[in-house]
Amino acid sequence: MLFEHSREAALSILTALLWKEMAYDNACMTEAEAKEMAEEIISQNESEESKYYSNGNGVKPESWNPLTDATFDAGLIITGCNHIHFCIWFQDED
Fold first, then answer.
1. Would you say 41 and 86 are in contact if contact means Cβ atoms under 8 Å apart?
2. Which helix (H) or strand (E) covers residue 8, if one does?
3. How far is CA 66 from CA 20, 37, 58, 81, 85, in A?
4. In this model, does residue 64 exceed pLDDT 80?
5. 3-state SS of 9-75?
6. Domain ranges of the chain
């Protein structure tokens, strides 16, 4: 099951995934760098009809539906005109 999100929520989700690893919350880059990269990724892969989906119900999801066998997994899917424009997926092990 995937959850539909607003563009703003999708940006926050992707920023969080780029910024810190899922298992131990260690920073991979600064939050500002992650937000800039997330904005660039989304803006290059969206259209006016785009919809945004993730397998979690928010940035720090209380529940999510795993799509892999990894301990943690999350990502962002951007669709438009009945097809996927872009998919980025992260997984991490504890």
1. yes
2. helix 7-19
3. 18, 24, 14, 26, 21
4. no
5. HHHHHHHHHHHECCCCCCECCCHHHHHHHHHHHHHHCCCCCCEEEECECCCCCCCECCCCCCCEEEE
6. 3-92
User: Tokens 């539909």 — which residue?
Assistant: 4
Angle at CA 62, nearest 5°, toward 59 and 65? 90
Tens of pLDDT, residues 28-58: 999 999 999 999 999 999 999 999 999 988 7
For residue 46, how far is the Cα from the chain centroid? Answer: 14
**Would you state the structure tokens that stand for residue 6, as one six-digit string?**
């607003």
For residue 66, give the amino acid letter.
P
